[in-house]
Amino acid sequence: MNRLVAKRPEHEAIYVQVKELILFGEVVPGQPLTIHGLADMIGAGITPVREAMRRLTAEGALAARENRRVEVPLMTSDRLAQIDLVRLTVEPKLAFLAANQAASAVIPDLERLDARVDQAIHTGDIRGYLVANFRFHFTLYDAADAPILRRIAESLWLQAGPSLRVVCGRYGTSNLKDLHQQAIAALREGAPQDVADAIEGDIRQGLDFVRQTFDE
Mind telling me which residue stretches traverse the membrane in this protein (predicted)? Predict the structure, then answer.
């Protein structure tokens, strides 16, 4: 368990661990999970794992099945279209608000995280890419100081993350693209709409990458 997670209460730390297994695609869509199996996987107690699974089911990251099993839902074209619609509404707005909140203070963190994204793409490190890409976006979104919109955005990332991991595993990282540098440049110039436009374009590229699954 990393240092930041260890500072949280146990039930919250376990929730974060389970959430990140889903967010970064270490549990594949359609894979059945049980409370005991997941507890063994992360070395945690039954009670906090049960609570984490309950919360993540309520958030749409897991779906309940028979015999007390849950799974990461399989992605469908209709589901992806709905995720697409809401992400393209919420996340550019978060980026715009962040730019308006004098978010230039986070530029060094964004540059560091973007360098990690580029390195992960270069080396084919899929998990490293997913982690750094998530941290980049949510470092920016945190600067917006809009917790309701942020929670919506994270819920949607939880639902899309496992499928992105599957697609990256199939096609590798060499074709991954982003508009992070454009977003950073616009942030530095104090141009909120340009930041929002860069983030919107970045999201579209990622969703189009996932959409390849349904175009074959």
Answer: none
